[in-house]
Amino acid sequence: MAREVNQFLSRVFAQRRKDGRTDLEAVESALRATLHQAGAAALTELLKFEAPAAEQRQLPCRCGHHAQYQELRSKPILTIVGPVRVSRPYYLCAPCGAGQFPVDAELDIENTEFSPGVRRMQALVGQQAPFDHGREQLKVLAGLEVTTKSVERTAEAIGADIAQREQEEIQKALQLGLPAVAGEPIPILYVQMDGTGVPVVKKETVGRQGKTEDQPAHS
Fold this sequence. Notes:
By secondary structure, the chain is of the alpha+beta class. The protein has two domains: about 1-45; about 55-165, no CATH class. Helix content is about 45%, strand content about 15%. The chain has six helices and four strands. Strands 1-2-3-4 form a four-stranded antiparallel sheet. Helix 1 (about 1-20) runs antiparallel to helix 2 (about 25-45) and helix 5 (about 130-140) packs across helix 6 (about 150-175). The radius of gyration is 30 Å and the shape is flat.
């Protein structure tokens, strides 16, 4: 990473000597891109998993048999520092044909090409603005290139997951033992609401004294 930063600074100082000025926005954007590239390279190295030891080359399968280690396979992942590749063991169950990537479950990247950090960003921008605007926000604020559809799908998937968890909590609460009701039941329950502070249009307060002396009513 130090080498990339030194190369970047050399280019910046060379440009300053050439035209005598510094474009701060261009410099900071380029520096962010440089740091992202260095971070992505480091993360790619970190995500190179080794083949399992001989005693770890089979895993239980849901069909009741065992999946056997086959090879190392890689796939691209977009992270908050940019695109990386993760190389991990692949297991296959011969009887049922189901494949497994245990590392994907460990890293929370099963059936997705976005890291947990990027998915969180997509959900955040997706809930606050139109999906295409969210895509533009990720590009400007984080330097990440994603599609409008990916922002939409991620935001909706996370929203559905949150709703499911809320329903599970509600069901747990409904199953709790509630205390027995003591005393006689209330035949009629009165509810009162103070609506005197509801804003209205001016014509509806004509001739009405306001709460402050010599001031017209506003509600």
